[in-house]
Design brief:
alpha/beta, Rossmann fold, 46% helix, seven-stranded parallel sheet, six-stranded parallel sheet
Length: 380
């Protein structure tokens, strides 16, 4: 059994490890590279998420990776591995990059059953013109050839259905984080969080939190504008992250003592932010999933997110938070006002958040993945 993924991650790699532990099959986990600039964690942390047996394909040909890129080097390494060993089943994360395309092609030619996984979101599928034509042809073919299509949630399932995938080929494997880690870590940070609130003069305020990159499509500027409009309310805002928009956003905050920028944080540092906050706000214009929603709910926060955020379709509703229908500042401000002025309602939503996220755990994701593979081993 061969699994191909782009880079190690604190989210997917634990699922792979659990899958190996509960499975009687021999698994080989292959990563294209140890790290890339698209991920939200340090290159120094990349190897913390894997086991010693896992393989970084591009590292086999470092000179080729330097000259032609890690995708080319990894593809060559994967090709050599396949010619020597092969596998009875392929689990492939993604379908657009060179190593993934090679493995899909190899599976088709060798008649090896394969599953394709990813976090595609139906609501964000905006390809136009010739790109739309090519994409429809490619994903239409893939939807009929893959033994299994792994959908991380409702928006992902709708995506595959829009390309003609039959229901019996789509398997739900919930996108998950280590709920226990975030729940327990946020509890341990409670005393420190209370000290920070006192230091900042935030006692008795409802604290809203944004976690993510500070880039235009995340709409953090609208969040700051909404908070500025509600200066009469006892609220505060923590912004965790960094990016090209930071300087502009700091200017928008205009030295508001109830808006704090805390910079980019590691997984070990995030629980403190969750502990001192009540509500996670994710107003992004294009969010395929949004794993910070999982993290925040595991810590007992309620959530404000746009309806087309992947996580919102499955995890956020009137019981666990507020679902935004637009990207307008006025609607976002109304959601903040609703939660800030209803202490009892906020408490109920926070409790429901923790209950709701319990069904989206790493052990359950591994078990769901195992069932998908068991159901499709014979298809080729």
């Amino acid at each position: 059994m061969l699994l191909l993924s782009n880079v190690p991650s604190p989210y997917l790699s634990p699922v792979y490890a659990r899958l190996k532990n509960i499975d009687t099959e021999d698994w080989q986990i292959c990563y294209v590279s140890a790290w890339n600039t698209d991920v939200g964690w340090s290159s120094a942390n990349a190897r913390e998420f894997i086991s010693a047996e896992d393989i970084f394909l591009a590292e086999r040909f470092p000179r080729l990776a330097d000259r032609l890129g890690v995708q080319v080097a990894a593809t060559l390494a994967l090709l050599l591995k396949l010619t020597k060993e092969g596998a009875d089943y392929f689990l492939i994360y993604g379908y657009t990059r060179l190593p993934q395309l090679l493995l899909i092609g190899w599976a088709f030619i060798s008649r090896t059953p394969f599953a394709v996984a990813g976090d595609a979101n139906y609501y964000l599928d905006e390809a136009r013109g010739w790109r739309r034509i090519v994409k429809r042809q490619w994903l239409g073919w893939l939807s009929h050839r893959a033994a299994a299509l792994i959908a991380v949630g409702t928006a992902c399932r709708l995506f595959w259905q829009s390309y003609g995938a039959q229901a019996d080929r789509i398997f739900h494997v919930g996108f998950a984080v280590d709920n226990d880690y975030f729940r327990e870590s946020s509890k341990r940070e409670f005393s420190q969080a209370e000290k920070l609130k006192q230091e900042w003069g935030w006692q008795h305020r409802t604290v809203f939190l944004y976690v993510g990159r500070l880039i235009e499509r995340k709409n953090v500027h609208r969040l700051i504008a909404a908070v500025q409009q509600l200066c009469e309310l006892p609220i505060a805002l923590v912004i965790a992250g960094d990016g090209e928009e930071r300087e502009r956003l700091v200017e928008l905050a205009n030295d508001n003592p109830y808006i704090k920028f805390v910079g980019s944080l590691t997984q070990a540092e995030l629980p403190l932010c969750y502990s001192l906050s009540d509500v996670l706000v994710l107003p992004a214009r294009a969010e395929p999933w949004g794993l910070v929603v999982n993290e925040a709910m595991a810590c007992g926060l309620t959530v404000i997110a746009h309806q087309h955020c992947g996580a919102a379709a499955d995890l956020v509703n009137d019981e666990t938070g507020v679902v935004l229908q637009s990207y307008e500042t006025l609607e976002l401000a109304a959601a903040i006002r609703l939660l800030a002025q209803d202490a009892d309602g906020l408490a109920r939503r926070k409790l429901k958040s923790r209950v709701r996220i319990a069904a989206w755990s790493i052990p359950q994701a591994a078990a769901q993945l195992r069932r998908a593979i068991d159901a499709t081993k014979k298809k080729a």
